[in-house]
Sequence to fold (321 residues):
Amino acid sequence: MNFFLDDLSTFFDDSLLNKISKKCLEISNQSYQVNNGNIPKWSQAIDTIDAFPKGKIALKKPYISINHDSIDNESLTAELRKLIPWRKGPFMINDLVLASEWDGDMKWQRISRHIKPLENKRVLDVGAGNGYFTLRMAMEGAKRALGIEPFLLFNYQFRAIKSMIKSPLNALLLPVKLEEMPKIAIFDTVFSMGVLYHQRDHMAHLSQLHELMVADAELVLETLVVEGPENFVLVPKGRYAQMRNVYSIPSIKTLESWLNDANFKNIRVVDVSKTTTAEQRKTPWIGENGSSLEDFLDPDDDSLTIEGYPAPTRAIVVCER
Fold:
């Protein structure tokens, strides 16, 4: 599937980013060659959406909004539903509300007031999902906003949204893993949000982020945390809030020590928030049998997960290379 090729050549028309373009293209091509029975359905949806009129993009909080009077909402809804589940968003196309599981604007509001301006910056969004935040970064004026996300469906979702924009932003999403990225210091701001606790080796993840950052670049790290002293880490047995592959959830002091050990400086914890059902919720856009946070908590005590662990609390840490 080569629908990203035109975007890629334009996006990487940049003196620094051009250094990684060949590798990113090679990995992306390989990723789209997987044997996945959903690809014909996803591809057909993209082809249909591509033919719709292009609209103007705007921010109508909490939505990334695209508006064009000639878009047929009924047809568009049918195609977008082929790309369910929509985890990140929300989006609005004319008066069609694509209510994703996560209200990403709530997280962005917690982050945006604490970071350096993104205007004219090269930005990397690691584990970007469908690129909702990558688009927000571009809308903040980033010179280039690159999202990397190995899960293919999310790449198709990004393409669906971006193909409806009349004047596309300098944003791109590719099916590339962090560890596959060429080890070249390029980015002025790097985001790792909701990724760290899924890493078997959290220090390797932090080191890989560090390698891609120019001198004095800013890291924005958002991750699950638990209460506890320095060196305390929760290692769930089995699932955590019904999530697979949650390997370690540190205390805030432990997280700060990890960042210090990874050679980051000026480490600031700028927000600690318990995840609520206003931010992560069931919607028709995650599927008929889709579960969300309300199903992952103890029905008798919402301070605990269904497995008996502390309920999800997330910290945002901002630091520099």
